[in-house]
Amino acid sequence: MKLLLSLSFLFISFNIFGQEVKIDTIRIELSDKLTSGFEENNYYPLIKTGNKKIDSLINYDLKNKLTREEMPNISIDSTLNEWASYGLVFLDFQINYNKNRILSLRIDAEGCGAYCTNWTEFYNYSTDTGKALKLSDIVDLTYLKDDILKKKNKQYQLNREELKKQLDEDEGLDLSTYQFILERYNECDKSFEINQFALYEDHLEIIEGCNLPHAFKPSTPIIDIQYDLSDIKEHLKIKN
After folding, report:
1. Among 94, 97, 184, 185, fewest CB within 10 Å belongs to which?
2. How far apart are CA 224 and CA 159, in angstroms?
3. How far is CA 17 from the centre of its chain?
4. CATH fold of 3-133, please?
C-alpha cells in the first residue's frame, strides 16, 4: 500500500484565547491505490513559536512520539513519508489550548492493514522551553492524585459491571471472552499511570488508554476523568 506525501505549507494562524500560534501544515495526499472512501486530505502540524530552537524541540518530540520513535534522527517530512507508507489513511489535528505559553493539541489518525484502526493522542508543550509537559506541571498532584485514582477506580468498576451485564443477558458474550476481557481490564487498572491529558480553556481531561485486540474493540473500557478549571483553580500551577 503506497502513500504519496506532498508538502503543502499552508500558513494557518490559530488566534485562540488571545495568543497567536502559527502552524505550517503538512498535507498528506493518499495515492489512487488506496480503497476509495478515505479522506483525501490529511494534515499534520508544524508548530511555529517564533523561536527556531523551541520549534525544533517541539516538532521533533511530537514527530517522534507520534511515530513511536521509529526514526528519531530523520527529518520530519521523511519520517512521515515512511510512516505513511505503512498504511496511514487519515491524519488530522486540533488545538485544544493556547494560552499562558502552553500548547495542548490532539492528533487523530487511522491506519489500515489487515483491518483499519483509528486512534487519538494528546500532547502538551511549554512554548517557553519547548519541553513536553506533565500533568504535574499544570496542577498540584499532591491534591489531585488521590481523587483521580478514586474516579479511575469507579469508572473501571462501572465498565466491569457493564461487561458482566452483557454476559448475564446473553448479549453475544461467552464466558471465555468475558474472562479474557475482564483480565485485560484488571491489568490496565493496576498499571494505570497519569500519562495522557488534554488542557482546554475551561477544563482539564485525563484520558486512559486500555488497548484490546481488534476483535474486542467494542468492549474497550471508557476511562475519562474531567475537572472544571474553576473547581481546581487554587491548585493550578498556571494562570487562567
Report:
1. 94
2. 12
3. 22
4. Heat Shock Protein 90 (3.30.565)
- DSSP character at residue 135: G
Torsion of CA 153, 179, 120, 204, to 10 degrees: -10
DSSP 139: B
49-70 pLDDT, tens digit per residue, is 999 999 999 999 999 999 989 8
Q: Say if residue 220 is exposed, middle or buried (CB neighbours under 10 Å; 0-12, 13-18, 19+).
A: middle
pTM (2 d.p.): 0.85
Residue 52 CA to residue 101 CA, distance in Å, equals: 16
Instruction: For the chain, give every domain's residue range.
Output: 3-133, 137-235
Using a pLDDT cut of 70, give the percent of the chain over it. 86
Please give the Cα distance from 7 to 43 (Å, whole number).
Answer: 10
Q: For the sheet containing 116-126, what is the strand order? A: 88-99, 102-112, 116-126
237, three cell numbers:
500551577
Whether residue 96 contacts residue 87, with contact meaning beta carbons closer than 8 Å, is answered with: no
Distances (CA, A) of 38 to 7, 9, 111, 156: 19, 22, 11, 34
3-class DSSP state for residue 93? strand
> Per-residue pLDDT for 1 more than 60?
no
